[in-house]
TrEMBL record:
Its main location: membrane. This is ABC-type Co2+ transport system, permease component. The chain crosses the membrane at residues 12-34, 46-67, 73-93, 105-126, 138-162, 174-200. The gene is cbiQ-6. It is found in: Cell membrane. It comes from Methanocella conradii (strain DSM 24694 / JCM 17849 / CGMCC 1.5162 / HZ254). The keyword Zinc-finger does not apply. It is a multi-pass membrane protein.
Amino acid sequence: MAHIHLEDGSFTVFWAIAWWLVAIAVISLSIIWLRKIKKVDGRIITVAGLCTAAAFAIFQISIPIAGGVHLNLTPLIGILTGPAVGSLIVLIVNIFSAAIGHGGWGLIGANCLINITELTSAYFIYKGMERLTKSVFARAGVATLLGLFIGNVAMIAIILASGIQGVNQSKADILWGLSLIAGINMMVAVIEAAVTGYVISYISKVRPDMLKEALYA
């Protein structure tokens, strides 16, 4: 879903480094929290490994809509592993993706922040809706849609703040173009919401402990 597919050099060095530093700070806090507060066991590490592999694979599958879009599975990652572990997962996925040309190296920091926004939003929305409905599918679907919407807003904000080198359009024109991309992303988000809702519903029936591990962290 929301992912900056620009080449290295699209952002100035200042902004590329700035987003990297913010991402490092967020991920460092996640590591500190995992080491000192939340004791991660082998079960969550196994789930994290599976989520990393699945997310990296799905990142590379392009859906032929408006030049190609893809699913992220970031809401699913957030619901299954929580924000802290999820932050480490998207860092690894973005590094591997950049290594095969899916996004520039200088944009890893910005893309990590976007993906962390998606998974964290989905996690808290899913958890917060527990009192509103007992339908796991509905909670996961709504959390996915809202999480991806917030991620698209974050993507637009980051690009507008950074600017794109070599582009002579005004910020209003850039915002219009990005809004169209976000609109297309949200149409595909409906597919991802259905996929996430189905997967979380299935897991809640066969392995409910996998969800409790993240949601009551």
